[in-house]
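Entry 0007
Protein: protein-tyrosine-phosphatase
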Amino acid sequence: MTRILFICHGNICRSTMAQFVMTDLVKKAGISDQFFIDSKATSTEEIGNPPHYGTINKLRQMNIPVLKHAASQMTRADYENFDMIIGMDEWNYRNIMRIIKKDPEQKVSLLLDYTNRPGDIADPWYTGNFDQTFTDVMEGCQGLLQKLTD
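Output (structure tokens):
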């Protein structure tokens, strides 16, 4: 079983969107039993909160199920418990590394690393653009799934 952890700053916008998109993609591919997919935050600001209404609205618009979720913070133990830890931007990557200290197994990456345009996924908390975030998250998750199933 491949265990994937998506990470963003607050765990209410991008990482939850990635979790739900990836969960939907593996379900549609008929391989849900091969994956455990979760998401967490690097900060404590949103702990316990549900996904942002903008994330919920965009996922529903795209017919992607919104799962029960409460924001939680990543811990050092998550490094041992997950095969892949995937951040949304360079700031997340630096904070992940601050939490885990080192990455000897090279588990940490950014979601857009799995596309032909590596870079950051903008935080819709600040931009308000959940459409662009969704486009980036979907492309990243599709690329990740392709890499994992090739």
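Curator remark: Helices lie at 14-28, 53-61, 77-81, 90-100, 124-127, 130-149. The mean pLDDT is 97.
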